[in-house]
Amino acid sequence: MKNVKKLIAVAMTVSLGVTALTGCGSKPAATNSAGKGSDEPDTITALLPPVSPNYQKNFEQMSKDFHEKYPNLTLKIEPASWEDMTQKLDVQVNAGSPPDIAFMGSDGISKYADSGMVMDISKLATDEMVNDFEKVPLDYMKNAKGLYGFPAYMEIHALGGNKQYLEEAGIDWKSIQQNGWTFDQFREAIKKGVVTANGKPSRYGFVFACSGVAAKDYLGILTKEAGMPSPFTKDLKYAYTSKNFLEVLKGIRTLIDDGSMPKELSSVNAGMRWNMFLTGKTMITGKGLAVFENSANQNNKKIDAKDGSAVKDSIKVDYIVLPVPTFGSNKQQATPAVDGYVTFKGKNSKNAEHDKNVVKAAYFLASGKVAATTNNDLFVAQITKSGAEAAKSMTITRNQDNAKAVENLIKSAAEARPDIPTELGAKHIKLEDQVIVPKLQALLANEITPQQMYDAVKAAAIEAFGEDKIVKD
């Protein structure tokens, strides 16, 4: 990325007063044609998980608003949980009938691009659509020269702390928010958060969701802070054969052996992790997104109101954003989460008019009122001018220390890598699913050592990419 400072705009400047763009209403450039179309009835399908706490509650209104904007078009939304989203999508893709649009992480685009199932909209999206987005998050939706949908938000994967527990442990969280911390400092800090009762931990220093594919998140945010911002170096060599990868694996095991994390970490899913945080069973949780502050605030209100829908046995929590610790002398390289509306080649994709309609629907979901409502619910910045305009009439209240912490982390966010060829990205995902995640689960369960996992990953990488295409240091 030539100008990392552009990242700051994602969090700080998109709220400037700019007249909302109407997307499809104006005449597009000659090379783009999504703004033109027939009046023939058409249905666009979308597979969408609970992106924000209130997101799925708005599906009926979203479909209604879309139909009012385009009277000949119908947006048919299929809801999915986060747990079964990938499975549902894979089943539909493998059956040759994917949805027209699916909400997913930008890092998964190469998986479906390699199979030829995602739709490149670079020649279908109007200039007005494209220019509505901040450049940095939009770049995450690209692979090589293709554009495969529109981003919904750009947020940083961080950690979340219980303010009271942090202060009781003597941890200067304000300094850490602005200056970061090393892995060794983090290790000593979370030891102070452990509380035992009857010889057993009643509160851990740190808990991360690691059940199933959630373990990828844990490894992913740590590797970036160890000098590996991407699975591939700029010269396209596989990075996870670096000695730095082994140091990360050793660190993961150490935190469990210290007693700062549960021995059963491999069975902790996202729901359990959040429940442990809200019930005071951990001082720090991960991964943490800005929406967690909102969720904690809402639960606090329920506790005050003696609302029975508050999490059972939960306590009031002041949620604090914390950076992921860095390894050795490596600089902070935060993990950006850029998720969005990926366009697929559905059963009607050979119809040129239908393809244009899919682009209209994807843009509708990623911009304007829909984006403003969703991103405010998530406590994340608006990344479209139209979303920022729509958000002017919406209120949002959050901890300003947390807001500043996120702004600070955005400055160090790892850059998008659309230069990684589709086939390499797909090979990494396959290696991740077949080797890295299973071996990491075994490491967490203390069934193998860090060295054994590293050796297995290195051997698989040599087989996948070749001896001369891996990092050797």
Automatic annotation (TrEMBL):
InterPro entries named in the record: Bact_solute-bd_prot1, SBP
Signal peptide span: 1-20
SUPFAM superfamilies associated with the record: Periplasmic binding protein-like II
ATP-binding listed as a keyword: no
UniProt xrefs under Pfam families: SBP_bac_1
PROSITE patterns with a match to the protein in the record: PROKAR_LIPOPROTEIN
Key words, A-Z: Signal
Superkingdom of origin: Bacteria
Protein name: Extracellular solute-binding protein
Organism: Clostridium rhizosphaerae
